[in-house]
Design brief:
This protein starts with 48 loop residues before the first strand and ends with a strand. It has no helices and 21 strands. By secondary structure, the protein is mostly beta strands. A hairpin with a 3-residue loop joins strand 17 and strand 18.
C-alpha cells in the first residue's frame, strides 16, 4: 500500500533529490510547528502509474488547540484519499521522471463543528536524468489549521515550497550540485506573521565506497518575516551518509550558521542526524537529533532555536502484528532579533507514543495509538498538556 509518512529532515539533501513525505494523520516530531517542506518520497512511491488509497482515523483529543488553560476536548475524525502517480526512475537510467502525491483530508469535530474543515497537501518531483547530469524540480503545498506550540492556538495557514536542483557527475565518484529554492507561509489570522525565504546552495559529494558518501555544502538564505527586518544566513555543513554494517544506516549533516539580523549577528551550530538499526529480523530502532533556527509567527521580531531528539523502536510479532514506541524532547529558546521586546521565552516539549498495528491483508492495516505530550513554557499564557488516543485505518484500492 502507498502509505506516506513524515520524514524527519527539512534541509537534509545528501542525495540529489531530498525525499520527504506526506503525513496523513499525526505529526510525530516534538514541536508540531516544525513543518517540513512536503516532497514526494523517492523510497515510498515505487509502483509506476496511478495508485489510490484511503486513510480514516477517529481519535479523542483532550486539548485540540494546545491551550494552557480551559482546554477544549473533542472527538476528531479524519478521512481522505491518498492519490499518487509515478513515471520513470529518478535514481537509475536515463530519461524523464515524475512523481506526484495528493492527500485531501476532511476533518470533523463532534462538539466544535464550526471548526470542521478540509486540509490539503500535495507534493511533486519532476526531472530528467542524463549520463552525467540530473535536473530536478520539486515542490509542495499544504493548507491546514492545526494548532502550533509557537502560537498556542489554531493557525489557519498555507505553506508552499519549490526548489530546482542540478547535479553533475563528471567522474564516477564526484558530484557537484547547485540548487535554488523558495518557501513561504501565509496565515489567515492577521495577528500572525507571514514569512518568506529564498535560498541558494552549492554542494560537493564524494562516493568513497558503495556504503559511504561524504560531502560539503554551502547555503545562503534570505528570510523575510512580516513586521520584522530581513535576515541573511550563511551556512556551511559537512554531510555523511554511511552504512557501516548491512543493518545500520547513518545520515548526518552538521556545521555552523552565521545569521545576520538588525540586532546583530551570531554564529551557531546546526545539526540534522538520523541513525537506523535493524537489531534483528523483527526488531528495528531509530534515533534523530537536530538543531536549527526558526522565525516565530506569534512574537514580533523573534526567532527561536530548536534543539531536540526523537527515538523509536518497532517490534514485529508474527506476520500481522507490530508494536511501536516513540518519544522525543525539544527545547525552543526565543530571542529578539528585530526591534525591541521580551525575548526570554523558553519552551520545553516532550512526547511519547506507543502504538499497535495489525495487518488485516496486503491492502488493509489498522493502527491503535496513544500520544501524550507536554509543553512547559516560561510564558504564563502559553504551554499545554495533551493526550490523544485513537484508531487509524489505511486501505489501498
Amino acid at each position: 500500500m502507498l502509505v506516506l509518512v513524515v520524514a524527519l529532515f527539512q534541509t537534509f539533501t545528501i542525495t540529489s533529490v531530498s525525499g520527504q513525505d506526506i503525513s496523513p494523520i499525526v505529526d510525530d516530531r516534538v514541536g508540531s510547528e516544525v513543518v517540513n517542506n512536503p516532497e514526494v518520497s523517492q523510497d515510498r512511491v515505487k509502483r509506476p502509474g496511478w495508485d489510490l488509497g484511503a486513510v480514516i482515523s477517529a481519535a479523542y483529543d483532550d486539548n485540540i488547540f494546545l491551550a494552557r488553560e480551559n482546554a477544549r476536548a473533542d472527538h476528531v475524525y479524519r478521512i481522505g484519499p491518498m492519490i499518487s502517480y509515478a513515471k520513470g526512475d529518478a535514481t537509475e537510467g536515463e530519461g524523464g521522471f515524475a512523481k506526484l502525491a495528493y492527500n485531501p483530508t476532511a476533518v470533523f469535530y463532534s462538539k466544535n463543528s464550526t471548526e470542521n474543515r478540509i486540509d490539503h497537501q500535495a507534493a511533486w518531483t519532476a526531472g530528467w536524468r542524463g549520463k552525467a547530469t540530473v535536473i530536478t524540480y520539486e515542490g509542495g503545498v499544504r493548507q491546514t489549521a492545526d494548532a502550533t506550540a509557537d502560537a498556542g492556538r489554531k493557525t489557519d495557514r498555507l505553506e508552499t515550497a519549490n526548489g530546482l536542483r542540478v547535479a553533475w557527475t563528471p567522474r564516477e565518484k564526484i558530484t557537484t550540485e547547485l540548487a535554488v529554492g523558495h518557501a513561504k507561509t501565509d496565515y489567515k489570522d492577521p495577528s500572525l506573521f507571514d514569512s518568506r525565504n529564498i535560498y541558494g546552495e552549492a554542494a560537493w559529494k564524494y562516493a568513497y565506497s558503495p556504503k559511504t558518501t561524504a560531502g560539503l555544502a554551502y547555503r545562503a538564505t534570505y528570510l523575510s518575516v512580516e513586521g520584522s527586518d530581513k535576515q541573511l544566513a550563511h551556512q556551511v555543513t559537512g554531510r555523511l551518509n554511511w552504512k557501516p554494517r548491512e543493518k545500520i544506516g547513518i545520515q548526518l549533516e552538521a556545521g555552523a550558521e552565521d545569521r545576520k539580523t538588525s540586532n546583530g549577528s551570531e554564529i551557531n551550530p546546526v545539526l540534522e542526524g538520523r541513525i537506523e538499526w535493524q537489531v534483528r529480523e523483527n526488531t528495528s530502532l531509530y534515533a534523530t537529533a537536530y538543531q536549527r533556527e526558526v522565525a516565530s509567527s506569534y512574537l514580533a521580531g523573534q526567532n527561536y532555536r530548536l534543539i531536540g531528539f526523537t527515538a523509536g523502536i518497532a517490534q514485529k510479532m508474527g506476520l500481522k502484528w507490530t508494536t511501536r514506541l516513540e518519544g522525543g524532547h525539544e527545547t525552543a529558546s526565543y530571542r529578539q532579533v528585530s526591534g525591541t521586546g521580551d525575548g526570554n521565552r523558553e519552551d520545553r516539549m516532550w512526547f511519547i507514543k506507543p502504538s499497535l498495528e495489525y495487518k488485516i491483508s496486503e491492502k488493509v492495516d489498522v493502527q491503535a495509538f496513544y500520544r501524550a505530550s507536554k509543553n512547559s513554557s516560561t510564558r504564563e499564557d502559553l504551554g499545554y498538556d495533551q493526550n490523544l488516543i485513537g484508531l487509524q485505518l489505511n486501505y489501498q484500492f
